Amino acid sequence: MTMLSSLVRFGRRQLHTIVSREIIKPSSPTPSHLKTHNLSLHDQLAPDAYVPLVIFYPNYSNIDLDSRLKLLDMKKSLSQTLTQYYPFAGRVAKKTPSFVDCNDDGIEFLEAQNDKPMTDFIRNMQHEDLDQLFPNGQLWKKLNHTFEDFEKDKASLLAVQVNQFACGGIAVAVSLHHKIADGSSLCHFFNDWAIMTRLRSWEQEYVVSPINPYFLSVKGTNLNYQGISLDKSRDNCVTRSFVFPGTKLNDLKLKVMAMTADSEQPIINPTRLEVLNWLLYRCALRTGSFKPTGFAQVTNIRNKMIEPLPKTTIGNLYILPAFSTTDDPNDITPNFFVSQFKKLKRDVQGIKDIKSEFENLQTMSPESLIEEEQSKTDDYYTSTSLCTYPLYGIDFGWGKPIKASVAGAMIINNFVAVDACNGGGIEVFVSLGKQDMPFFQKDPELLSFCESI
Protein backbone atom coordinates (compact mmCIF):
# COMPACT_ATOMS: atom_id res chain seq x y z
CA MET A 1 0.00 0.00 0.00
CA THR A 2 1.29 3.45 -0.88
CA MET A 3 0.82 6.23 1.65
CA LEU A 4 1.47 9.93 1.28
CA SER A 5 2.61 12.51 3.78
CA SER A 6 3.37 16.14 3.14
CA LEU A 7 4.99 19.06 4.91
CA VAL A 8 4.60 22.74 4.05
CA ARG A 9 8.09 24.23 4.21
CA PHE A 10 10.51 26.16 2.04
CA GLY A 11 7.65 28.12 0.43
CA ARG A 12 5.86 25.15 -1.10
CA ARG A 13 4.51 21.75 -0.18
CA GLN A 14 7.22 19.17 0.36
CA LEU A 15 6.13 15.63 -0.51
CA HIS A 16 7.36 12.62 1.39
CA THR A 17 5.85 9.38 0.14
CA ILE A 18 5.92 5.90 1.64
CA VAL A 19 6.14 3.69 -1.44
CA SER A 20 6.39 0.23 0.11
CA ARG A 21 6.63 -1.71 3.34
CA GLU A 22 7.52 -5.32 4.01
CA ILE A 23 8.80 -7.69 6.68
CA ILE A 24 12.47 -8.78 6.61
CA LYS A 25 13.21 -12.05 8.42
CA PRO A 26 16.55 -13.60 9.41
CA SER A 27 18.18 -15.53 6.57
CA SER A 28 18.62 -18.57 8.85
CA PRO A 29 16.33 -19.80 11.64
CA THR A 30 17.37 -19.12 15.21
CA PRO A 31 18.58 -22.33 16.92
CA SER A 32 16.18 -23.81 19.47
CA HIS A 33 18.52 -23.16 22.43
CA LEU A 34 18.48 -19.41 21.63
CA LYS A 35 14.71 -19.05 21.23
CA THR A 36 14.29 -17.29 24.58
CA HIS A 37 16.33 -14.17 25.34
CA ASN A 38 15.86 -13.08 28.95
CA LEU A 39 15.86 -9.35 29.58
CA SER A 40 18.23 -8.16 32.30
CA LEU A 41 17.09 -5.84 35.08
CA HIS A 42 18.72 -3.00 33.11
CA ASP A 43 16.59 -3.96 30.09
CA GLN A 44 13.39 -4.09 32.13
CA LEU A 45 14.08 -0.66 33.60
CA ALA A 46 14.74 0.81 30.15
CA PRO A 47 12.04 3.06 28.65
CA ASP A 48 9.17 1.59 26.68
CA ALA A 49 10.23 3.68 23.70
CA TYR A 50 12.14 3.58 20.42
CA VAL A 51 15.66 4.99 19.96
CA PRO A 52 15.81 6.75 16.55
CA LEU A 53 19.01 7.27 14.53
CA VAL A 54 19.26 8.51 10.93
CA ILE A 55 22.33 8.73 8.70
CA PHE A 56 22.47 10.70 5.43
CA TYR A 57 24.39 9.53 2.34
CA PRO A 58 24.69 11.84 -0.67
CA ASN A 59 24.76 10.60 -4.24
CA TYR A 60 28.49 11.09 -4.69
CA SER A 61 28.35 10.17 -8.39
CA ASN A 62 25.51 12.66 -9.09
CA ILE A 63 23.75 9.97 -11.11
CA ASP A 64 21.20 7.32 -10.24
CA LEU A 65 23.25 4.20 -9.49
CA ASP A 66 20.40 1.72 -9.78
CA SER A 67 18.61 2.47 -6.52
CA ARG A 68 16.69 -0.80 -6.78
CA LEU A 69 19.95 -2.76 -6.69
CA LYS A 70 21.04 -0.77 -3.63
CA LEU A 71 17.79 -1.59 -1.87
CA LEU A 72 18.00 -5.24 -2.82
CA ASP A 73 21.51 -5.47 -1.35
CA MET A 74 20.33 -3.71 1.81
CA LYS A 75 17.43 -6.10 2.30
CA LYS A 76 19.50 -9.23 1.72
CA SER A 77 22.29 -8.05 4.01
CA LEU A 78 19.75 -7.00 6.64
CA SER A 79 18.33 -10.52 6.57
CA GLN A 80 21.83 -11.93 7.10
CA THR A 81 22.59 -9.42 9.86
CA LEU A 82 19.40 -10.36 11.71
CA THR A 83 20.64 -13.94 11.90
CA GLN A 84 23.35 -12.66 14.26
CA TYR A 85 21.05 -10.11 15.95
CA TYR A 86 18.28 -12.68 16.36
CA PRO A 87 16.45 -11.05 19.35
CA PHE A 88 15.85 -7.95 17.22
CA ALA A 89 13.68 -10.05 14.89
CA GLY A 90 11.65 -11.49 17.78
CA ARG A 91 8.74 -10.25 19.83
CA VAL A 92 8.29 -9.29 23.46
CA ALA A 93 5.98 -11.73 25.14
CA LYS A 94 3.65 -9.35 27.02
CA LYS A 95 3.02 -5.75 28.00
CA THR A 96 5.57 -5.83 30.82
CA PRO A 97 8.14 -8.09 29.14
CA SER A 98 10.84 -10.05 30.93
CA PHE A 99 12.03 -11.90 27.83
CA VAL A 100 12.04 -11.82 24.04
CA ASP A 101 10.55 -14.69 22.07
CA CYS A 102 13.18 -15.08 19.33
CA ASN A 103 10.65 -16.43 16.84
CA ASP A 104 12.14 -14.90 13.65
CA ASP A 105 8.95 -12.95 12.92
CA GLY A 106 11.15 -10.25 11.42
CA ILE A 107 11.30 -6.47 11.28
CA GLU A 108 9.51 -3.78 9.29
CA PHE A 109 11.32 -2.31 6.28
CA LEU A 110 9.86 0.77 4.59
CA GLU A 111 10.89 2.61 1.43
CA ALA A 112 10.10 6.31 1.04
CA GLN A 113 10.75 9.09 -1.46
CA ASN A 114 11.25 12.81 -0.84
CA ASP A 115 10.90 15.29 -3.68
CA LYS A 116 13.61 17.63 -2.35
CA PRO A 117 17.37 17.36 -2.93
CA MET A 118 19.09 16.15 0.23
CA THR A 119 21.22 19.30 0.57
CA ASP A 120 18.09 21.47 0.54
CA PHE A 121 16.39 19.26 3.10
CA ILE A 122 19.34 19.37 5.52
CA ARG A 123 20.04 23.08 5.05
CA ASN A 124 16.45 24.21 5.69
CA MET A 125 15.11 21.62 8.10
CA GLN A 126 13.94 22.07 11.65
CA HIS A 127 14.51 19.14 13.98
CA GLU A 128 10.87 18.08 13.66
CA ASP A 129 11.34 17.54 9.91
CA LEU A 130 13.39 14.43 10.68
CA ASP A 131 10.31 12.68 12.06
CA GLN A 132 8.93 11.82 8.61
CA LEU A 133 12.09 9.84 7.83
CA PHE A 134 11.23 7.22 10.46
CA PRO A 135 8.75 4.34 10.29
CA ASN A 136 5.46 4.43 12.18
CA GLY A 137 6.31 7.52 14.23
CA GLN A 138 8.65 5.43 16.37
CA LEU A 139 10.71 8.22 17.94
CA TRP A 140 11.13 8.08 21.72
CA LYS A 141 7.53 6.96 21.87
CA LYS A 142 5.69 3.83 22.82
CA LEU A 143 4.82 1.44 20.06
CA ASN A 144 2.52 3.05 17.51
CA HIS A 145 0.32 -0.01 17.11
CA THR A 146 -3.03 -0.86 18.65
CA PHE A 147 -3.10 -2.60 22.00
CA GLU A 148 -4.69 -5.62 20.30
CA ASP A 149 -1.72 -5.89 17.92
CA PHE A 150 0.67 -5.69 20.86
CA GLU A 151 -1.16 -8.44 22.72
CA LYS A 152 -0.97 -10.60 19.59
CA ASP A 153 2.83 -10.19 19.56
CA LYS A 154 2.76 -8.19 16.32
CA ALA A 155 5.07 -5.44 17.55
CA SER A 156 8.29 -5.18 15.56
CA LEU A 157 11.17 -4.40 17.92
CA LEU A 158 13.24 -2.91 15.10
CA ALA A 159 12.06 -0.90 12.12
CA VAL A 160 13.95 0.58 9.16
CA GLN A 161 12.99 3.26 6.67
CA VAL A 162 15.16 3.99 3.62
CA ASN A 163 14.42 7.48 2.29
CA GLN A 164 15.48 8.41 -1.25
CA PHE A 165 15.81 12.09 -2.17
CA ALA A 166 15.37 13.70 -5.56
CA CYS A 167 19.15 14.01 -6.01
CA GLY A 168 19.71 10.27 -5.49
CA GLY A 169 20.90 10.68 -1.91
CA ILE A 170 19.67 8.26 0.74
CA ALA A 171 18.82 8.70 4.43
CA VAL A 172 18.74 5.43 6.37
CA ALA A 173 16.62 5.68 9.53
CA VAL A 174 16.48 2.99 12.19
CA SER A 175 14.25 2.78 15.28
CA LEU A 176 15.17 0.18 17.91
CA HIS A 177 13.08 -0.62 20.94
CA HIS A 178 14.92 0.41 24.12
CA LYS A 179 13.74 -2.71 25.95
CA ILE A 180 16.24 -4.89 24.13
CA ALA A 181 19.16 -2.53 23.57
CA ASP A 182 20.69 0.92 24.10
CA GLY A 183 22.31 3.53 21.88
CA SER A 184 25.64 1.70 21.82
CA SER A 185 23.90 -1.45 20.59
CA LEU A 186 22.07 0.50 17.89
CA CYS A 187 25.34 2.01 16.62
CA HIS A 188 26.98 -1.42 16.44
CA PHE A 189 23.97 -2.90 14.65
CA PHE A 190 23.96 -0.04 12.13
CA ASN A 191 27.66 -0.52 11.42
CA ASP A 192 27.39 -4.32 11.15
CA TRP A 193 24.49 -4.04 8.72
CA ALA A 194 26.55 -1.60 6.62
CA ILE A 195 29.50 -4.03 6.63
CA MET A 196 27.29 -6.84 5.37
CA THR A 197 25.79 -4.61 2.67
CA ARG A 198 29.23 -3.49 1.53
CA LEU A 199 30.39 -7.10 1.26
CA ARG A 200 27.29 -8.08 -0.70
CA SER A 201 27.80 -5.22 -3.17
CA TRP A 202 31.32 -6.48 -3.82
CA GLU A 203 30.61 -10.21 -3.89
CA GLN A 204 27.02 -10.34 -5.17
CA GLU A 205 26.81 -13.75 -3.52
CA TYR A 206 26.32 -15.11 -0.03
CA VAL A 207 29.16 -14.03 2.24
CA VAL A 208 30.31 -15.44 5.56
CA SER A 209 29.38 -12.97 8.29
CA PRO A 210 32.37 -11.15 9.80
CA ILE A 211 30.18 -9.63 12.54
CA ASN A 212 29.92 -11.08 16.02
CA PRO A 213 27.55 -9.31 18.43
CA TYR A 214 27.63 -10.63 21.98
CA PHE A 215 24.35 -11.22 23.81
CA LEU A 216 24.57 -11.70 27.56
CA SER A 217 22.95 -14.77 29.04
CA VAL A 218 21.06 -13.65 32.15
CA LYS A 219 18.86 -15.44 34.64
CA GLY A 220 15.16 -14.93 34.12
CA THR A 221 13.76 -12.26 36.45
CA ASN A 222 10.66 -10.09 36.28
CA LEU A 223 10.17 -6.64 37.78
CA ASN A 224 6.58 -6.66 36.50
CA TYR A 225 7.26 -3.13 35.34
CA GLN A 226 6.76 -1.49 31.98
CA GLY A 227 9.92 0.64 32.23
CA ILE A 228 11.00 4.20 32.86
CA SER A 229 8.45 6.63 31.43
CA LEU A 230 9.58 9.39 29.08
CA ASP A 231 6.16 11.00 28.90
CA LYS A 232 6.53 13.79 31.47
CA SER A 233 6.22 17.24 29.87
CA ARG A 234 6.75 15.80 26.38
CA ASP A 235 3.99 17.96 24.95
CA ASN A 236 5.84 21.03 26.22
CA CYS A 237 9.21 19.90 24.84
CA VAL A 238 11.12 21.19 21.83
CA THR A 239 14.47 19.93 20.47
CA ARG A 240 17.04 22.03 18.65
CA SER A 241 20.54 21.35 17.31
CA PHE A 242 23.66 23.29 18.31
CA VAL A 243 27.08 22.81 16.68
CA PHE A 244 30.26 23.52 18.64
CA PRO A 245 33.33 23.52 16.35
CA GLY A 246 36.58 21.98 17.56
CA THR A 247 38.30 25.38 17.72
CA LYS A 248 35.48 26.77 19.87
CA LEU A 249 35.66 23.77 22.21
CA ASN A 250 39.38 24.43 22.63
CA ASP A 251 38.54 28.03 23.49
CA LEU A 252 36.00 26.78 26.04
CA LYS A 253 38.63 24.53 27.62
CA LEU A 254 40.99 27.49 27.93
CA LYS A 255 38.24 29.58 29.52
CA VAL A 256 37.49 26.89 32.09
CA MET A 257 41.16 26.46 32.96
CA ALA A 258 41.58 30.23 33.29
CA MET A 259 38.51 30.50 35.54
CA THR A 260 39.93 27.91 37.92
CA ALA A 261 43.65 28.77 37.70
CA ASP A 262 43.70 30.62 41.04
CA SER A 263 41.56 28.11 42.91
CA GLU A 264 42.78 25.44 45.33
CA GLN A 265 42.02 22.76 42.75
CA PRO A 266 42.61 24.20 39.27
CA ILE A 267 41.20 22.21 36.38
CA ILE A 268 43.95 20.97 34.11
CA ASN A 269 43.26 19.51 30.66
CA PRO A 270 39.49 18.97 30.93
CA THR A 271 37.73 16.92 28.27
CA ARG A 272 35.47 18.34 25.58
CA LEU A 273 32.38 16.80 27.17
CA GLU A 274 33.21 18.00 30.67
CA VAL A 275 33.40 21.66 29.67
CA LEU A 276 30.55 21.42 27.16
CA ASN A 277 28.14 19.85 29.66
CA TRP A 278 29.06 22.58 32.17
CA LEU A 279 28.24 25.26 29.60
CA LEU A 280 24.97 23.64 28.51
CA TYR A 281 23.79 23.06 32.08
CA ARG A 282 24.75 26.58 33.19
CA CYS A 283 22.94 28.19 30.24
CA ALA A 284 19.87 25.96 30.65
CA LEU A 285 19.52 26.94 34.30
CA ARG A 286 19.52 30.60 33.30
CA THR A 287 16.21 30.13 31.47
CA GLY A 288 14.74 30.14 34.95
CA SER A 289 11.40 28.37 34.66
CA PHE A 290 12.45 24.90 35.82
CA LYS A 291 14.02 24.07 39.16
CA PRO A 292 16.17 20.97 38.71
CA THR A 293 17.53 18.81 41.47
CA GLY A 294 20.72 17.85 39.68
CA PHE A 295 22.60 16.54 36.68
CA ALA A 296 22.79 12.93 35.44
CA GLN A 297 25.15 11.43 32.85
CA VAL A 298 24.05 8.36 30.89
CA THR A 299 27.17 6.18 31.11
CA ASN A 300 28.06 3.13 29.03
CA ILE A 301 29.55 0.60 31.48
CA ARG A 302 30.86 -1.98 28.97
CA ASN A 303 34.47 -0.84 29.17
CA LYS A 304 34.28 1.02 32.48
CA MET A 305 34.20 -1.94 34.88
CA ILE A 306 37.25 -3.60 36.38
CA GLU A 307 36.38 -6.69 34.32
CA PRO A 308 35.05 -5.07 31.12
CA LEU A 309 32.61 -6.57 28.66
CA PRO A 310 33.28 -6.78 24.92
CA LYS A 311 32.38 -3.46 23.27
CA THR A 312 30.02 -5.40 20.97
CA THR A 313 27.89 -6.56 23.91
CA ILE A 314 24.24 -5.95 23.03
CA GLY A 315 21.62 -4.85 25.53
CA ASN A 316 21.01 -2.01 27.97
CA LEU A 317 24.40 -1.66 29.60
CA TYR A 318 24.38 1.84 30.97
CA ILE A 319 23.78 3.48 34.31
CA LEU A 320 22.59 6.95 35.22
CA PRO A 321 24.94 8.34 37.91
CA ALA A 322 23.92 11.77 39.13
CA PHE A 323 24.84 14.56 41.49
CA SER A 324 22.72 17.24 43.15
CA THR A 325 23.27 20.92 42.53
CA THR A 326 21.96 24.28 43.58
CA ASP A 327 19.20 25.97 41.59
CA ASP A 328 21.33 29.10 41.20
CA PRO A 329 23.28 29.02 37.90
CA ASN A 330 25.90 31.34 39.39
CA ASP A 331 26.82 28.58 41.83
CA ILE A 332 27.48 26.08 39.02
CA THR A 333 31.16 26.91 38.80
CA PRO A 334 33.48 24.88 36.56
CA ASN A 335 35.36 23.70 39.68
CA PHE A 336 32.20 22.24 41.18
CA PHE A 337 30.70 20.83 37.99
CA VAL A 338 33.82 19.28 36.44
CA SER A 339 34.95 17.76 39.76
CA GLN A 340 31.52 16.17 40.24
CA PHE A 341 31.51 15.00 36.62
CA LYS A 342 34.91 13.33 37.09
CA LYS A 343 33.71 11.71 40.32
CA LEU A 344 30.81 10.10 38.46
CA LYS A 345 33.28 8.49 36.07
CA ARG A 346 35.50 7.25 38.92
CA ASP A 347 32.53 5.71 40.71
CA VAL A 348 31.53 3.76 37.60
CA GLN A 349 35.08 2.42 37.23
CA GLY A 350 34.75 0.93 40.72
CA ILE A 351 32.18 -1.65 39.54
CA LYS A 352 33.84 -5.07 39.49
CA ASP A 353 31.87 -6.79 36.72
CA ILE A 354 28.41 -7.10 35.22
CA LYS A 355 27.44 -9.89 37.61
CA SER A 356 28.10 -7.68 40.63
CA GLU A 357 26.18 -4.82 38.98
CA PHE A 358 23.11 -7.04 38.51
CA GLU A 359 23.44 -8.41 42.06
CA ASN A 360 23.59 -4.87 43.43
CA LEU A 361 20.32 -4.02 41.66
CA GLN A 362 18.68 -7.11 43.14
CA THR A 363 19.47 -5.94 46.69
CA MET A 364 17.04 -3.06 46.19
CA SER A 365 13.29 -3.50 46.24
CA PRO A 366 11.72 -3.12 42.79
CA GLU A 367 9.68 -0.17 44.04
CA SER A 368 12.67 1.81 45.35
CA LEU A 369 14.77 0.94 42.29
CA ILE A 370 12.06 2.13 39.92
CA GLU A 371 11.36 5.27 41.95
CA GLU A 372 15.05 6.25 42.02
CA GLU A 373 15.58 5.81 38.28
CA GLN A 374 12.31 7.56 37.39
CA SER A 375 13.14 10.55 39.60
CA LYS A 376 16.42 11.11 37.72
CA THR A 377 14.57 11.05 34.41
CA ASP A 378 11.84 13.42 35.62
CA ASP A 379 13.74 15.89 37.79
CA TYR A 380 17.35 16.00 36.62
CA TYR A 381 19.00 17.37 33.54
CA THR A 382 20.37 14.34 31.68
CA SER A 383 23.20 14.06 29.18
CA THR A 384 24.09 11.30 26.73
CA SER A 385 27.15 11.12 24.49
CA LEU A 386 27.50 9.11 21.29
CA CYS A 387 30.79 10.83 20.52
CA THR A 388 32.84 7.66 20.96
CA TYR A 389 30.95 5.85 18.22
CA PRO A 390 32.25 6.19 14.62
CA LEU A 391 28.91 7.10 13.06
CA TYR A 392 30.65 8.83 10.17
CA GLY A 393 32.47 5.61 9.39
CA ILE A 394 29.28 3.64 8.69
CA ASP A 395 29.66 2.84 5.00
CA PHE A 396 27.13 0.77 3.02
CA GLY A 397 29.41 0.85 -0.02
CA TRP A 398 28.29 4.23 -1.36
CA GLY A 399 30.81 6.31 0.59
CA LYS A 400 30.87 7.94 4.00
CA PRO A 401 27.82 9.81 5.34
CA ILE A 402 27.59 13.58 5.57
CA LYS A 403 25.33 13.73 8.61
CA ALA A 404 24.24 11.53 11.51
CA SER A 405 21.40 12.57 13.77
CA VAL A 406 19.11 11.42 16.51
CA ALA A 407 15.51 12.50 15.98
CA GLY A 408 12.21 13.10 17.68
CA ALA A 409 11.12 15.08 20.72
CA MET A 410 13.27 13.68 23.49
CA ILE A 411 12.55 14.06 27.20
CA ILE A 412 12.58 17.58 28.54
CA ASN A 413 15.87 18.97 29.89
CA ASN A 414 18.04 16.55 27.97
CA PHE A 415 21.28 16.82 25.96
CA VAL A 416 22.46 14.26 23.37
CA ALA A 417 25.92 14.78 21.87
CA VAL A 418 27.33 13.31 18.66
CA ASP A 419 30.54 14.07 16.82
CA ALA A 420 30.17 16.70 14.11
CA CYS A 421 31.05 15.57 10.61
CA ASN A 422 34.52 17.15 10.65
CA GLY A 423 36.98 19.29 12.56
CA GLY A 424 36.70 17.69 16.00
CA GLY A 425 33.46 19.48 16.79
CA ILE A 426 30.37 18.25 18.60
CA GLU A 427 26.70 18.59 17.67
CA VAL A 428 24.32 18.61 20.62
CA PHE A 429 20.58 18.00 20.43
CA VAL A 430 19.08 20.01 23.27
CA SER A 431 15.54 19.36 24.51
CA LEU A 432 13.97 22.03 26.72
CA GLY A 433 10.53 23.39 27.49
CA LYS A 434 9.00 25.47 24.70
CA GLN A 435 9.04 28.53 26.94
CA ASP A 436 12.73 28.01 27.81
CA MET A 437 14.26 27.35 24.39
CA PRO A 438 14.01 30.96 23.08
CA PHE A 439 16.04 32.20 26.07
CA PHE A 440 18.55 29.36 25.72
CA GLN A 441 19.07 30.07 22.01
CA LYS A 442 19.87 33.71 22.73
CA ASP A 443 22.26 33.13 25.63
CA PRO A 444 25.37 35.20 24.76
CA GLU A 445 27.77 32.82 26.51
CA LEU A 446 26.35 29.88 24.57
CA LEU A 447 26.50 31.78 21.28
CA SER A 448 30.16 32.66 21.81
CA PHE A 449 31.06 28.97 21.45
CA CYS A 450 28.32 27.84 19.06
CA GLU A 451 28.82 27.88 15.27
CA SER A 452 25.22 28.45 14.27
CA ILE A 453 21.67 27.72 15.33
UniProtKB/TrEMBL annotation:
A GO term, aspect molecular function: acyltransferase activity
Family classification: Belongs to the plant acyltransferase family.
Gene3D superfamilies referenced in this protein's UniProt entry, alphabetically: Chloramphenicol acetyltransferase-like domain (3.30.559.10)
Keyword flag ATP-binding: no
Keywords, alphabetical: Acyltransferase, Transferase
Pfam family name, one: Transferase
PANTHER family: BAHD ACYLTRANSFERASE, F21J9.9
Official protein name in the record: Transferase, Chloramphenicol acetyltransferase-like domain protein
Organism: Artemisia annua (Sweet wormwood)
